């Protein structure tokens, strides 16, 4: 059989990587080629603008070459298009080829970093060795200073996984599914305890490296952008409440930077145990919103779950923060001139930046409704839940049709508009 060209393999393996959502680059340390020893020929940077859409918290856009080392796999996970029993075209790169592609794309200003994952070929240890070797070539042989995100394999030897953290900015281990029962049913080759143990080991190594960096100036860097994970939504019977609870547990126990949610997508020759159609994409969006509520707005997991219906599913027509406010109207209205930050963060329509501006402005004067209107996209959404110098909602907060009054209107947009 003729060897596929580099372009053909790139097309196959880049397309196969599209199902992994956990490739954002936030949290990496800033490095560039100017920081090396005098006379060195360092390559790469984590700064500047690229052509991709992975933005860091400070506004930098880091473009990534995202692909699989190989889509061959010895595992047979029902939801995976690259599973052993799947009838897809297979391809494979060597570590040197991936390193060469990364450098070539970088020099053409296409990318500023690499996101590398892989199917399991031969064994978990062998595959993990190939991933680490790719990063080693880039870092040690070419002094590549760009961003590297490695997907690690929980079944691999912990020592090999640990080496990944020495070369990568971020590492990630996918929990795959929200519940152990779902994982057992849909991914029989994977073990929930093994995944959790690998994440715990990586977290311990990251914490130890940070501590060593404080005490020893030349301590080696270790996954400075932390670790992340991904959960597939809609492949099993897990409710949104189950997913939120699991995500919160992962944040607390393993100090993850991010939990990513990926709506299940039907695949060719799908297993009979999978749903026939994908869940609404808005469900994935509502889960990201609930994630934000826990991370930035002070909501506990059980409070986010309270926004869900009796079936544990978040409403699709309104965001979870508004859903919670409508259920717990006794917490409102909130006086924007007196309420603590924690109470203001629970007001629908007020984001973290708006709350910060309110807290700053009210030190100098008392705020009116017009002042709040300048800080939010929809003052109509905020009005029933706040009190200002010139506004009090009176009975508006308790109206039975309040949801209909403030929920965003559903409309069909025109494809062709003059």
From TrEMBL:
Q: Which cofactor does it need?
A: [4Fe-4S] cluster
Single GO term (MF) = iron-sulfur cluster binding
At the top level, the lineage of the source is Bacteria
Give the taxonomic lineage as stored in the record.
Bacteria, Pseudomonadati, Pseudomonadota, Alphaproteobacteria, Sphingomonadales
Q: Is Cytoplasm among this UniProt entry's keywords?
A: no
One Pfam family name is Radical_SAM
PANTHER family, per database record: ENDONUCLEASE/EXONUCLEASE/PHOSPHATASE FAMILY DOMAIN-CONTAINING PROTEIN 1, TYPE II SECRETION SYSTEM PROTEIN K
Recorded protein name is Biotin synthase
Which InterPro entries does the record associate with it? Aldolase_TIM (IPR013785), DNA_rSAM_put (IPR023874), Endo/Exo/Phosphatase_dom_1 (IPR051675), rSAM (IPR007197), rSAM_sf (IPR058240), RuvA_2-like (IPR010994)
Arranged from A to Z, the UniProt key words for this protein are: Iron, Iron-sulfur, Metal-binding, S-adenosyl-L-methionine
């Amino acid at each position: 059989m003729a060897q596929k060209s580099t372009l053909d393999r790139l097309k196959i393996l880049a397309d196969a990587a599209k199902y992994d959502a956990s490739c954002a680059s936030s949290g990496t340390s800033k490095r560039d080629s100017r920081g090396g020893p005098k006379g060195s020929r360092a390559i790469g940077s984590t700064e500047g603008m690229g052509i991709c859409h992975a933005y860091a918290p400070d506004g930098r856009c880091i473009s990534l070459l995202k692909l699989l080392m190989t889509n061959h796999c010895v595992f047979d996970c029902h939801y995976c298009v690259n599973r052993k029993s799947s009838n897809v075209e297979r391809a494979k790169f060597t570590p040197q080829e991936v390193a060469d592609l990364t450098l070539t794309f970088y020099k053409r200003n296409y990318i500023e970093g690499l996101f590398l994952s892989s199917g399991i070929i031969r064994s978990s240890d062998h595959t993990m060795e190939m991933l680490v070797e790719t990063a080693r070539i880039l870092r040690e042989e070419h002094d590549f200073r760009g961003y590297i995100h490695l997907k690690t394999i929980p079944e691999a030897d912990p020592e090999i996984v640990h080496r990944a953290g020495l070369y990568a900015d971020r590492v990630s281990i996918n929990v795959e599914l929200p519940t152990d029962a779902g994982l057992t049913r849909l991914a029989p080759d994977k073990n929930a305890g093994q995944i959790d143990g690998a994440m715990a080991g990586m977290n311990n190594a990251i914490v130890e490296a940070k501590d060593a960096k404080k005490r020893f100036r030349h301590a080696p860097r270790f996954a400075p952008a932390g670790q992340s994970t991904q959960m597939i939504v809609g492949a099993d019977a897990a409710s949104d409440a189950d997913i939120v609870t699991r995500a919160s547990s992962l944040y607390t126990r393993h100090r993850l930077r991010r939990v990513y949610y990926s709506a299940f997508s039907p695949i060719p020759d799908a297993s009979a145990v999978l749903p026939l159609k994908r869940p609404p994409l808005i469900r994935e969006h509502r889960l990201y919103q609930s994630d934000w509520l826990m991370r930035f707005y002070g909501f506990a997991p059980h409070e986010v779950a309270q926004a869900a219906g009796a079936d544990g599913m978040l409403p699709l027509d309104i965001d979870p923060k508004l859903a919670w406010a409508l259920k717990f109207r006794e917490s409102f209205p909130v006086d924007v001139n007196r309420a603590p930050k924690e109470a203001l963060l629970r007001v629908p329509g007020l984001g973290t930046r708006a709350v910060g501006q309110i807290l700053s402005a009210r030190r100098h004067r008392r705020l009116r409704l017009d002042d709040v209107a300048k800080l939010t996209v929809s003052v109509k959404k905020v009005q029933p839940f706040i009190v200002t110098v010139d506004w009090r909602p009176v009975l508006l907060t308790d109206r039975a049709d309040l949801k209909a009054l403030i929920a965003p209107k559903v409309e069909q947009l025109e494809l062709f508009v003059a």
